[in-house]
Amino acid sequence: WLGQEQAIVRCMPNTPSLIQLGASGLFANEHTSIVQKNLAETVLKAAGIVQWVQSEAEIDAVTAVSGSGPAYYFLLMEAMIDAGVDLGLSRETASELTIQTAIGAAQMAKESDVDVAELRRRVTSPGGTTEQAINTFEGAHLRDIVKAALNSANRRSGELAELLGEPQTSEE
Question: Less Cβ crowding at N or C end of the chain, within 10 Å?
Fold first, then answer.
């Protein structure tokens, strides 16, 4: 409905863009000039980082990973706060500790020269408390759950793109 030769930049920002800590994925079709791409990138960089992808289908993956991603972290933080309260901490203390731990871990991951798997291994002492918790996560198949959730979000993003991409007709 936009026509076949229109310059289009499709983007998927996320809610941390509201505080200039966002992550946006962008895709430009073949009709988009370098000037137009640079303009789109400049606008979105004001809200955080920008990653260009090579195909429009990858925007669905961006949506699954980072567009919806903040909600996944919020859910994990909710669970950690609730567990902390169950263990005897006040909600305020559990919340402060959880949020600061998330901020610190994210900053360490961002600044580190090693990948997040290695950072996790460095925190996980053999026979220690962290190893026990990690084993519980792994035993519950956390990675499979995350993969299934992101696949579901990716699929839904594609469905929504198809719905929005179809020409609109009026029934007059």
Answer: C
CATH code 1.10.3730.10 region(s) in the chain: 69-140
> Which tokens belong to 105?
């871990």
User: For the structural domain made of 69-140, what CATH number should be given?
Assistant: 1.10.3730.10
pLDDT digits (tens, 9 = 90+) for 9-68: 999 999 999 999 999 999 999 999 999 999 999 999 999 999 999 998 999 999 999 999
Alpha carbon distance, N-terminus to C-terminus of the chain:
18
- Local confidence band at 114 (pLDDT 50, 70, 90 cut-offs): very high
CATH architecture, domain 9-67+154-165:
3-Layer(aba) Sandwich (3.40)
C-alpha distance from residue 144 to each of 12, 21, 153 (Å): 25, 28, 14
